[in-house]
Every structure is written in C-alpha cells, then in structure tokens.
Amino acid sequence: xxxxxxxxNATHQRIKQASVQQGVEPPILLAISKTRPASDIVVAFxxxxxxxxxxxxxxxxxxxxxLEGYPIEWHFTGPIQSNKTRAVAENFSWIHTLDRNxxxxxxxxxxxxxxxxLKVCLQVNVDREESKSGLLPERVAELAEEVxxxxxxxxxxxxxxxxxxxxxxxRKKSFQTLARMLAELKKIHPQMDVLSMGMSGDLELxxxxxxxxxxxxxxxxxxxxxxx
Length: 228
Prior knowledge:
- The protein is an alpha/beta fold.
- It has a single domain (4-220), classed as Alanine racemase (TIM Barrel).
- Helix content is 41%, strand content 17%.
- The protein is built from 9 helices and 8 strands.
- The chain has helices spanning 4-22, 38-46, 57-66, 85-91, 101-110, 140-148, 168-186, 203-208, 218-221; strands at 28-32, 51-54, 73-76, 94-98, 118-123, 153-159, 194-196, 213-216.
- Helix 4 crosses helix 5 (101-110).
- The longest helix has 19 residues, at 4-22.
C-alpha cells in the first residue's frame, strides 16, 4: 500500500534540500493526481498539499465536485480542446498547457467574473518534439502578447516537459532554455514569474534552474493507475 503522507514528506525534503543548496525559495509542490481517487487527494491535502493537477477533464470534474468543501487550488495540466474550454474556465484556478490563441480567447470569454482571473502558463515545446504539444520557442512571444490583452486571463509564466528519457545534461539545457525565455518575456510582461518545470525524477535539476512550480505525480502517489 502506498504511504502518501510519507511520500509527501520525502518530496518536501527533496524540495527543501535542493532549494537550500541553490539559495532560493522552495517552489510550489503541485501534486499530479490524475487517475488517483478523491480519497488519495484527501490524504495528500491533510499532509499539507494545496495544489493538485489533473489531466483528464471528466475525471477531474467528478473529483472537484466530491471535494468541494476543501480549499484546493485545481490546476489543469492536460491538453485543452475547444469543447473543453468552458468546463476548464469554470472549474480551475490554473492552466499549464495553453498553446493556442483560439483556446485563450474561448477561456477568456467563458471565465466567470466571480472567480477572478484564470492563471495561465504557456506550454513550450522546448525540445521541438514532433509528437509533443506546445508552442515552438519562436512563437511564444506572440502568444504571450495576445494573452496579456485578455482581461479574464492572468499570464503567469511558462511550462515545459523535457524529452522523455533524456539524460541530466539535456534536461538541464531544456530547463535553462525555458528560464532564459521567461527572463526575456519579463522585460515586456513583468507579471510573468512562474516556471512550471520539473517532475518526480528531475525536480532537483529544475529547482537549480529556477523552477517555481514542480509537478510531481509518481513520487507522491506511486505509479499511475492505468485508465481502463
């Protein structure tokens, strides 16, 4: 049986140790709870986690409804199709995977005013993988400008997932590239202060390059439960 509380304590220790070594503020731990039951999220919440990431919309909506009484910040970390934008805009505080102006405009139009601005990170295909979602680096500035003009969205930063299976050196290079891109964008959009990067296996590398949110699934909840 997975000891979620133990895993969270161990993950927080890793984050703290890496942050002390770099002399930086610890990043937010975003627990990626896709495929996990609501009961696991409750255990993680009681262990101190407040930010949870979901990839699958219908599954997420069921958990959000079941855990309505908990002051959780829900992050959408999956691909966003046009037919999902309303539900995402109405139920999440954060999006990490914005990569199209069309989707940005729909989210802006559909965000209920009473919820305040929807925080968004632009997903960057930092390694230019043909099979991966996200903006190519040369397109990021254009979308950032477009999103910055939408009144119901708050442009917060950038997100990337380095190439799967890559060794530490290329991962480090990918994180450095994303950090440089954010530094350039901050000159025009000073509110952009989020680097969503680093996962269970490489969060220390990401913290060393300036991560402010680390997205951790396996190290918190154990191996992912396969969807039927």
